[in-house]
Amino acid sequence: MVEAGAGSREDTARPSQELESVVIRFAGDSGDGIQLTGTQFTNTSFIAGNDLSTLPDFPAEIRAPAGSLAGVSGFQLQLSSQEVHTPGDTPDVLVCMNPAALKVNLPLIEKGKVILLNTSTFNSANIKKAGYEENPLEDGTLDDYQVFPVDITALTLGALEDSDLSQKEKTRCKNFFALGLLYWLYNRKMDTTEQWLNKKFSKAPELAAANIKVMHAGYNYGVTTEMFASTYEVKPAQIQPGKYRNVTGNTALSLGMVAASQLSGLPVFLGTYPITPASDILHDLARFKNFGIVTFQAEDEIAGVCSAIGASYGGSIGLTSTSGPGLALKSEAMGLAVIMELPLVVVDVQRGGPSTGLPTKPEQADLLAAMFGRHGECPAVVLAPATPADCFDIAIEAVRLATKYMTPVIILSDGFIANSSEAWHIPEVDTLPDLSVRFTVAEDGKGPFTRDPETLSRPWIRPGTPGLTHRVGGLEKDFNTGNVSYDPDNHEKMIRTRAAKVAGIAKDIEPAQVVGPESGDVLILSWGSPAGTVRRALEVFQKEGASVAGCHLRHLNPFPADLGQVMAKYRHVVIPEMNLGQLRMLITANYDVRPVGINKVKGQPFRVSEIVDPVRRLLQGVH
Amino acid sequence: MEALKLTKKDFTSDQDVRWCPGCGDYAILSTVQKIMPDLGVPPHDVVFVSGIGCSGRFPYYMNTYGFHSIHGRAPGFATGLKVSRPELSVWLVSGDGDAMSIGGNHLIHILRRNVDINILMFNNRIYGLTKGQYSPTSEIGKKTKSTPMGSLDRPFNPLSLALGAGASFVARAVDRDLGHLQEVIRAANAHKGTSFVEIYQNCNVFNDGAFSQFTEKETKDDTVLYLEHGKPLIFGKNKDKGIVMRGAHPEVVTIGGEGGVLESDIVVHDETVPTPHYAFMLSQLQYPKFPEPVGVLRSVEQPTYDEMANEQIRRAKEAANGSSSLEKLLNSGDTWTVE
To answer: How many CB atoms lie within 10 A of CB A119?
Structure first.
């Protein structure tokens, strides 16, 4: 029986060493429950007060053959007593549940670091499947690392000797052995995970009990064996007081849409089609019907966006969520929303492309598609969240602009932001902006295309409004009446007006935010998910006293009105992005600046060094 | 205050109608404008949604709300509108290219969902707006600009396709028989769920006379089978021909006379048969072997998507019992406080 109190330190005399931060990577077969193990460690550490950032890294296949390289799933997290901006470049601790996980992840870890291995899986068949000629535990491959071999599967089965579960069910508990051992190693309490297991398996209490038992066995293994010389402690971070919760980008975006609905008083209508890595937005919003959120799983991407536009026409906030291939399919309908001048929010959770590409990996290569991927002169607003939590604010900003300016707004998230998580400082509801909308009625004396002189926006007239029946469509409209017009001058006037409307939004958005010196040698101009890595790089330069500043863009079309002036204050503008230079192309086209690109398209986020090193080389060239 | 009696004029927009002179679309437009005042819905609560093609211009001519969308996708827009605004009367106007070709996928899905929308599909068996290519309803061997040696692909039978997709209301009418067209459109409007109406429509420029055998005085009595609920399937100039079933197969028979069958042997039309087999049999009656049926083939009550979707919202709100506050939502899940 397991008797040890969860997380009680009286049971060990082992010294505890304090660490500022630690990066842990769990890796194993996609059927090993790696994402779940990582998430549990994350939640427990959040509750212990650490600042934290996570990176799930899973294969496109749901279940690739067991033990294969293609089936390796990973989950990396960085916890710290300081502010964390990234999931960490390289792991301090790598937990490998099988040889394939070791093969895939060994290149990520530096020599001298800790590797915890489940030796039960290192049989000749698995070793061969992982592409090793010899057993890496014996042939010297791991000589330069601190290796902790643990027979996790056997120990798990031993802990469940008295259980009536099948051998297969018992074996599946093994990830909780590893989790328990890490909880011991990092001085964590197990109660959060216990509560979660009891809730998750409320209908199968024997499974909850078995997993809890195995987790305790892992914990006690740490207590009783002499394997580790010390345990570690990462103290709570000094973060802004307030209430926090852990959110992924997709969850934050969904919460932001619910908030936007409440703040505007309009229902949200999500018309969408499942696609990785955006589907969780549908899953999340489908649970919020009590807030009047309508979710419609359409027959395809096109019907998804069309239904959203139909709902917008009816007076809802039309929303569609997708990833690259879906963005391509939606482009014609988005053009209709542009010419009809209807609000629409399109969320593109970018993934590796072109075509099916790398469906589970992040990339930022849809920027130009979002800007120009429609036929005709077809401007849309483009926004990009900086971090998972920022998705909440971006969703609200998207709805504000879409409804105020009667325009499609594209949100460019990516697979990294969507699936990784961070601590979110939950806002007070009364600090959120008022998004209230007033539909135009006959008494206002406006026609369907009577523009607001300030915003150039047309009125939003819902069908069902007496006295204002009118027709809108994809054909060019007369500037004054909105009726179909083939007049050449009118067409040009309308094109210029629609362009000016979107360009004018620059006056209504936050100015460019600079971190670091207000002028100097280098400005790192970034957008999207590299935000965290850039912040870390800026901290490095700040410590060195280097003349490097950062400016992170959340508005990509239009750009902040002062962006040109900001960039002009630095000798070099450096743009790191996970594409071959798409923001760089836009900046070059719009400003008298020749930025330097740092471009990475490996389906993996930037490491800090990948930004620091080239900037440093540039600085050396400057001085 | 007593509501003013609405007239056809109240549903007619100020825009010039731009179809070719002699086009069958004029008759359909005029018929719809004429019956609208009787349907009890004011113009501002009616929305006409269309796709691309000659039929796509229809909304511009109606003094209601109108939404001229993109090619083939009208069902998507109409679904989003109807689900979010179930109180509106939503009509979808399409053609054989728009609905059967580029929009085939959306058509079958709106039908299986049974969204409460009236679909009028103008079938002229040709692409008119792009000036005369064959369509998915053109007969095999159709010689057009794009098929100088004749088209190769078999045509869709729109009624069979709709029935195969589970449509709850399927009907056919002809642009030249205005009284009957009125009846069918009224029935479509009265039906709750997706009403699919195929209208044989003459394109006098690119496919003139495609339906003349069903519209000309000399032939139509023998080529058209008027369906009436509860009445036997009888046709012919002398009302002496009918449809009987021989096993699973329909057959044309002569009533009375030497060797003729009794009127009581003729199949009696029932548009409410719950299973689609009977309606499908009717949809497959094709000239010249059979007369082609017009009228309501199938009209069955089934739950509508828009109603069910809104019911789920209502139930979710009820279950939350007024406690759905944004503040509570944002603060849900595992939270912690930093002092």
So the answer is: 18
What are the C-alpha distances in Å from A355 to residues A257, A323, A359, B23? 28, 11, 9, 44
**Are B80 and A306 an interchain contact pair (Cβ–Cβ within 8 Å)?**
yes
Last residue of a domain, one of A397, A431, A465: A431
Q: What is the mean pLDDT of residues B287-294?
A: 97
The domains of chain B are located at 8-231+269-306, 233-268
Let me know: does A273 contact A304? Beta carbons within 8 Å. yes
The CATH number that domain B8-231+269-306 falls under is 3.40.50.970
Query: How close, in Å, is residue A244 to chain B by CA atoms?
Result: 5
Chain B residues close to A259, C-beta within 8 Å: 326, 330
Interatomic CA distance for residues B140 and B134, integer angstroms: 10
**Chain A contact set for B109 (CB, 8 A):** 298-299, 303
Q: Give me the number of domains chain A comprises.
A: 4
Rounded alpha-carbon distances, angstroms, from residue A116 to A13, A25, A179, B107: 22, 10, 11, 56
- State the ipTM, two decimals: 0.97
| Predicted pLDDT of residue B169 | 98
Residue A2 inside a domain? The answer is: no
Is B119 in a helix, a strand, or coil? strand
Cross-chain CB nearest to A306 (options B76, B316, B319): B76
The pLDDT averaged over each successive group of 10 residues in chain A (623 residues) is 41 75 93 91 88 84 83 93 89 96 95 94 94 93 94 96 94 96 94 93 95 97 86 86 92 98 98 97 97 98 98 98 98 98 98 95 97 98 97 98 98 95 94 97 97 98 98 97 97 98 98 97 97 94 96 98 98 98 98 97 93 96 63
DSSP SS3 for A455 = coil
Q: What is the CATH number of the domain that holds A103?
A: 3.40.920.10
Q: Are A277 and A529 in contact (CB under 8 A)?
A: no
- Give SS3 for A568: coil
Residues 39-58 of A with CB under 8 A from B: 43, 46-47, 49
CB contact under 8 A, B44 and A468: yes
Which residues 297-326 in chain A show a CB within 8 A of chain B? 298-300, 302-316, 318
Nearest chain B CA: its distance from A363 CA (Å): 29
For chain B, state the CA radius of gyration: 23
Residues A534 and A496 reside in one and the same domain: no
